[in-house]
Amino acid sequence: MLLLHGGLSNKLSWFSQIPWLVAAGRRVVLIDTRGHGDSTHGNPKLSYPIFAEDTLQVLDRLGIQHTDIIGWSDGGIIALLLGLDAPQRVGRIVAISANFQPSGLIPETDSNQDKPDNTSLKKITDRLRGWWSGAGEKHAVLESELKELWRTSPLLDHSDLQAITAPTLVITGENDIIELSHSSELAEMLVHGKLEIVPGAGHAAPVTHARQINQLIASFLGIEPPQ
Q1: How far apart are CA 168 and CA 153, in angstroms?
Q2: How high is the mean pLDDT of the chain?
Q3: Could you report the per-residue pLDDT of 89-100, keeping only the tens digit for each?
Q4: I need a labelling partner for 200 at 20 to 30 A (CA). Which of 58, 86, 134, 172 fits?
Q5: Based on the number of CB atoms within 10 Å of its own CB, is 85 exposed (0-12), middle (13-18) or buried (19 or more)?
C-alpha cells in the first residue's frame, strides 16, 4: 500500500490511516515528495511527472512491482499519472481531493485582507507551516514553487483519464477546494471510476474526517476496516 501525501505536507500526515492499514496486514510505504519532509529538492523544477518518476524509482529500489495507491491532493494527481503511464505497476487507486486540470480548483481567497498585521502570529504560523511540510526555513520557497505548479498543472484531458484502467475511488469533501462538478467529471471519465463525497469535509478530510475516509478506503480495497 503506497501512500502519497499532498503538497506542503509530508508522509506523516497519514497518521490516521497508517495504524489500521498495518493492522489489516498491509505493507505500508510512505514517501516524502521532493522538497518535503526528509526528501531534498534537487535541481529540477518541481512537476508532477518528476514526482511520479521519483515514486517509481522508490518502488524499484524496494523491489515492489505492483501496489495499491492512496493519494491525497497532489498525491492523488501523482497516483493518476502512475495509473496512466505505468499501469502495470498499479493495482487500485484511491484519489482524495485530486484535480486533473487547474480549472478544477476553487479560486483562493485572501482571508487576511482585512486583518491587522501581527508579526508574532505570522512567525508562529510560518513555523507551523514549515513543520507540517517538513521544509522548515525553506517552506516559503517551496510554497511559492508549488503554487505556480497548481496554477498551471496538471493537464490531463478526457482521453488521458479514459486510458487509466485501474479501479479508482475518487473521494472529495463536500466543502473541498476542488469543485464538486470537477470531481464528478473525473470519476465519470475514468473507465472504472467511483465517486464518494464526504459530508461536511474540506480538503483535509483524511485528518478531520478520518473515520469516514478510512471506512471508504477499506470498503473499496476489500480490507479489514478500522475498529
Answers
A1: 20
A2: 93
A3: 999 999 999 999
A4: 134
A5: middle
Amino acid at 213: I
pLDDT bucket at 190, cuts 50 / 70 / 90? very high
- What is the tens place of the pLDDT at every residue in 37-96? 999 999 999 999 999 999 999 999 999 999 999 999 999 999 999 999 999 999 999 999
Terminal Cα-to-Cα distance of the chain (whole angstroms): 19
Residues with Cβ within 8 Å of 167's Cβ and at least 6 positions away in sequence, in order, are 92, 93, 192, 194, 220
Question: Which grid coordinates belong to 99?
Answer: 484535480
Query: What CATH number is given to the structural domain containing 133?
Result: 3.40.50.1820
Give the DSSP per-residue string, 147-166.
HHHHHH-----HHHHHT--S
Residue with cell 510554497: 143
**What is residue 118's predicted lDDT score, i.e. its pLDDT?**
63
Instruction: Specify the number of domains making up the chain.
Output: 1
Q: What domain range includes position 173?
A: 2-106+119-221
Q: Considering the entire predicted model, what is its pTM?
A: 0.92
Count of positions (residues) in the chain: 227
Q: Is residue 74 part of a domain?
A: yes
CB 57 within 8 A of CB 78: no
